[in-house]
UniProtKB/TrEMBL annotation, chains A, B:
It comes from Teichococcus deserti. One of its GO terms (molecular function) is isomerase activity. This is Mesaconyl-CoA isomerase. Keywords: Isomerase. Pfam families: CoA_transf_3 (PF02515).
Length: 408, 408
């Protein structure tokens, strides 16, 4: 958490990864982010993995530091309260972040009638508004066909398009807020998940490579394209990645392994200039043969010792368990992390924002709320409702608090 | 391109993907982004893929819409000009984005002596400042060990951590700019590439799953975890991804394929509730058996016809060539794209920003500059240098224009 955005209030009506990550990114920078959910939770509320308590660790991890209010969004009274929260006055309020169908009461037209300068960010599947998720966007991206060894397409497990979309949303909201301070204008900002994929494929040069060179990138296992890098097994059953992009990094490999002279023989042998990325890429088979033999005779810790302070660019492969148990960067030794108590899950290591601002305003990460945990406080603080009025809304089933959440 | 950030001026001293993407993201929103490179180009200037002209399509794709000035950054006079550009006055200037070692003349201390309210964003490898690249961060993330079928770790080809880091940089710069308007304070904002990875692994619930359930996610090929989804071959040698997260999407599959009754038999047969994500995940083997047989008897176009307007969440697998030649979303039919003339590459399809702001301010994408293309204009406009003074700088080898770039 940070305080850089302290004072901003953002309302989120969302589910799954991208939009919640966009909101959490801003919450971790200090904004007050109020997530509105239907009573009982939205479609992502029971998403796996679950804790033994039944609490979704997925939901809890993507909604840290937010406030939660549960409303009967299927009833006009609940929609009216949601609209009032979204349109609440104040120069640092009037923001809605959503990936749900923005029709009816939640359309930009209906909401901007309540607040003309509303900034509404809306994530869709495709630019025409049709539905898509990370998996159905990723299959079309070209990357699964270029991943692995080539027998069949390999989906990456990281929901990379959702993550990028969430961060485009946080960027877009701050850009629109900056402009609103200048022209007073509200805006609807739309972002299509498949456009995030398509823009990224273009930004990385893959489209130009096809258009200009008619070259369709083929799978190369774990080899880097156009530079030197691959994974190598160690003598103790581990695996490491070694990379050289700069000439300095390339020379460091020769020095740290003691293979400099033999690596140098590869230049004339393969007739390439080893002081260029392309030359090293074209001679990688011979280079890999020497490195594979060297790594295969050494344990991970012996290699770590040999590479320590050498300038070699490398890293060990780790599964999620090894990452948490063995990697000091994934511990409270890293100022981004803190141990928090997450209701329904217990003590867990939680990251804050990876952005560190000078001024020492980096705050420890906050847990995710229980569903409806802040319902009463938000109604009182933002809408100025009396406890009597709030009680009536509970009695009428328009608002719910955490007790209605059996799994929290 | 957009005009939402029109008026902002950002200086970038960068290489490779993350920092250039951060700058390009802001340039595509209308900011003036001046990329400073050493004469002859930075370490990424010849990165593959290359056009027949020798021009890097990688560099050209990651630096669209920027201005380029080439300076002798290894000489005090060149460093002095760079410092003057970074510290140039104006409420909408005073921003530096870099992933290069920020020491000596480029340290925050040295630069903030020239402009006290400088906002400097600095990407590092690890939080301790040590070096890393996407590949050496990714191997440690746990994802390669959970990707593919499990014989060996599979690196994803998408540089996902670089992309996320670039978008954290654009978010962080706008957040710091907002706060500077309030408190007048400059800031150094640091972001470690491995922290972006670690935060993402935590945000997605993988760390909590290990800590709470001692569950280390294992590879499952292209199956979704905790929901229904997998890839299926078609009768004409293509492959599609079918996903059902909501019950509505699940029912749409039964309706569109005509398999509803037989799919319903799987509930009692496998003793699961098919109206839950977890139930469908646990019974996925039987569900996949029916869908595999159905898809295997049909061509991609027959399946597309059957799923048209059905509410089924699906997509075809495409390689980068098919993406460009077959997918209408990857064409000028998509308002994000335009055909541009890229010097050294010719006519190419280029994406603008995926963020669409109401107010019709979406501008067509701009090509990348030739190295040093804007050297003279930037010196005149930003520093007010006379053409005589600029000529002297050229004669002294402190500044270079595009003619010195043999590959442009």
């Amino acid at each position: 958490m940070s305080t850089i955005l302290a004072g901003m209030r953002i309302v989120e009506v969302s589910a799954f990864i991208a939009a919640p990550l966009g909101g959490m990114t801003l919450a971790q920078l200090g904004a007050e982010v109020i997530r509105i959910d239907p009573i009982g939770g939205n479609i992502d509320y029971r998403r796996w993995p679950l804790a033994p308590s039944g609490r979704s660790l997925y939901w809890a991890s993507l909604n840290r530091g937010k406030r939660s209010i549960a409303l009967a969004l299927n009833k006009p009274e609940g929609q009216e309260i949601a609209r009032a929260l979204i349109a609440a006055p104040g120069p640092d309020a009037g923001f809605l972040l959503t990936n749900l169908p923005a029709s009816g009461w939640m359309s930009h037209q209906a909401l901007s009638a309540a607040r003309a300068d509303l900034i509404m960010l809306r994530l869709t599947g495709h630019f025409d508004g049709s539905a898509a998720v990370d998996y159905t966007v990723n299959c079309a991206s070209g990357f699964p066909m270029a991943t692995g060894s080539g027998e069949a397409p390999v989906n990456h497990v990281l929901p990379a398009w959702d993550i990028a979309a969430g961060l485009y949303l946080s960027t877009g909201l701050l850009a629109a807020e900056r402009q609103r301070r200048r022209d007073g204008q509200g805006r609807e900002v739309t972002l299509a998940l498949s456009d995030v994929m398509l823009a990224s494929v273009g930004n990385l040069g893959y489209l130009a490579d096809v258009a200009v060179n008619n070259n369709v990138r083929a799978p190369m296992g774990n080899d880097l394209y156009g530079a030197l890098g691959r994974d190598f097994p160690t003598s103790d059953g581990r695996r490491i990645m070694i990379v050289a992009i700069s000439n300095r990094q390339w020379r460091a490999i020769g020095k740290a392994t003691g293979l400099a002279e033999r690596l140098a023989m590869i230049g004339p042998m393969m007739d390439v200039d080893l002081d260029t990325e392309g030359g090293r890429f074209n001679a990688r088979g011979a280079i890999f043969a020497l490195l594979e033999a060297w790594c295969g005779k050494r344990t991970l810790s012996e290699i770590a010792t040999a590479f320590e302070g050498s300038g070699v660019l490398w890293g060990p492969y780790q599964d999620f368990g090894q990452l948490l148990s063995e990697d000091p960067r994934c511990s409270t030794a890293n100022p981004m992390f803190a141990e928090i108590t997450q209701p329904g899950a217990g003590r867990i290591l939680a990251p804050g924002t990876p952005l560190a601002f000078t001024g020492g305003d980096r705050q420890p990460p906050a847990p995710a709320p229980a569903l409806g945990q802040d319902s009463d406080a938000v109604l009182a603080e933002v809408l100025g409702l009396s406890s009597a009025a709030i009680g009536k809304l509970h009695d009428a089933g328009i608002v719910a608090g955490p007790l209605s959440d059996t799994a929290a």
